[in-house]
Amino acid sequence: MTSKGIDLEDYIRSVPDWPKDGILFRDITPLLADPQAFAAAIEALGAGFTDAGVEYVAAVEARGFIFGSAVAEKLGAGFVPIRKAGKLPFKTESVSYDLEYGRDTLEVHCDAVGSGAKVLMVDDLLATGGTMAAACELVEKIGGQVVGIALLVELCDLRGRAKLGGYQIKTLISY
Predict the structure, then answer these.
(1) CB of 158 closer than 8 Å to CB of 127
(2) Alpha-carbon distance 44 to 50, whole Å?
């Protein structure tokens, strides 16, 4: 329950057998469609980090951008987009990481944050933790200091939190 009295879990739709048999997909689109629920989620994601001196909020495309940019605005911080390889127009730094079947690469502009800048990482979902771990590594590689991770949904059975070491993690909904 958020400070606005909204149970965010009521706005997460469970879709069985999507995108393939045996998967229970957690669909956030009902939350996005409701302005009060979305506002409550943004407020709750930023709560707990208001006194952390957050200078930037970083998020990975695509759904992370939805939440990350709104949390950045709420905290009065800049927003740092982390993208798949080849999508940013300026000089970038990159980190590659393992997927279930193969590898992927994330990139960020080299000048996205200053040395020692305090960065809050935001995403809609934590599953295996590989993408978030790579995103944190990338922010630190360009000089940022990750002060926390704020997540809308965490799929606890997939143990993604184990890949995120000693970071302060705030999850709004756990399955």
Answers:
(1) yes
(2) 11
Whether residue 93 lies in the annotated active site: no
Q: What percent of the chain has pLDDT over 90?
A: 94
Q: CA torsion 94→139→167→147, rounded to 10°?
A: -170
Domain boundaries, the chain: 53-174
- 51-106 pLDDT tens trace: 999 999 999 999 999 999 999 999 999 999 999 999 999 999 999 998 877 899 99
Question: What CATH number labels 53-174?
Answer: 3.40.50.2020
Q: Is 63 a catalytic residue?
A: yes
Annotated catalytic residue: which of 9, 43, 61, 63? 63
**pLDDT given for residue 6 in this prediction:** 96
Rounded Cα–Cα distance for residues 2 and 154 (Å):
16
**Measured distance CA(86)–CA(36) in Å, rounded:** 36
